[in-house]
Amino acid sequence: MPTHAEEKPFECEVCRKSCKKKSYLRKHMLIHTGVKPHVCEVCKKSFSMKCNLNKHMLVHTGEKPHVCKLCKKSFSQNSHLKHHMLNHTGEKSHVCEVCKKLFSHKSDLKKHILTHTGEKPHVCEVCKKSFSIKSNLNKHMLIHTGEKSYVCEICKKSFSQNGNLKDHMLIHTGEKSHMCEICKKTFSHKSGLNKHMLIHTGEKRHICEVCKKSFSHKSGLDKHMLIHTGE
C-alpha cells in the first residue's frame, strides 16, 4: 500500500504541505509569494491561479451552471451548491465547543464564536463603530452612504436593506405568521410578538429613573416621563 509520502512527494519548504505533482507545488507556492499573475480584464482583480480567475469571471457573465436538483436554485460555483445543499439535508456537523450549538456551515460557526469572544474586528471608518461580522459592517455603511437600493414594487418606498423591504411587504400582504401560543393572536413581525408576550409574562424591564415605576414597553415609559418633564 503506497504511503502518504509516496503519494505526495513534493513538499512545500514554507508550510510543509505535500503535493502529488511538481506543477501543483508551483501553484501552491504562489500563496506564499503573493504573486497574482492572472488579471480579470473587466475589473482588474488579480488571482494567483488561472482556475480562480475562471471562477471569478462567472460574476461578470452571470453564468450559473450548478443547479440544485431539489429547488432548482442555481450557482456559479460547485462549492456554493454544496454549501447550499446543507440547507436541504439539515446536516449540522460543526459544533461550538463553548455552548454546543450546531451549525451546517463552518463559516456560520466562526461567526457564532465571535458572540462568545466579543471580538469585533470590522470597524466603520466613518464613525468607528465596530462589528463582529463583515456583512453587518456593510449593512451599517448604508447609513452613511444613504443608499436605498431595495424598492417596494407596490408603493415605491425604498430601503437600505433587503430584510427591511421584506418586513415592509407584510404591510401590503397582510401576512401574520407569528402567533402567540397562549392567546393565539397573530403578528406580522417577530418583534411585535415579542412585545405582546410581555403582557403574559408580566415582565417590566423599562424603569423610570425618577420614581422607579416600571413598564412593559419603552413607549409606556416615554409617555410616563412626560409627567416628570412637564411637556
From TrEMBL:
Its main location: nucleus. InterPro entries: GLI_C2H2-zinc-finger (IPR050329), Znf_C2H2_sf (IPR036236), Znf_C2H2_type (IPR013087). One of its GO terms (molecular function) is DNA-binding transcription factor activity, RNA polymerase II-specific. It holds the Pfam family zf-C2H2. It comes from the Eukaryota. It is found in: Nucleus. Residues 10-37, 38-65, 66-93, 94-121, 122-149, 150-177, 178-205, 206-231 form the C2H2-type domain. Keywords: DNA-binding, Metal-binding, Nucleus, Repeat, Transcription, Transcription regulation, Zinc, Zinc-finger. GO terms for cellular component: nucleus. Belongs to the krueppel C2H2-type zinc-finger protein family. This is Zinc finger protein 583. Gene3D superfamilies: Classic Zinc Finger. The keyword Translocase does not apply. GO terms for biological process: negative regulation of transcription by RNA polymerase II; positive regulation of transcription by RNA polymerase II; regulation of cell differentiation. The keyword DNA repair does not apply.
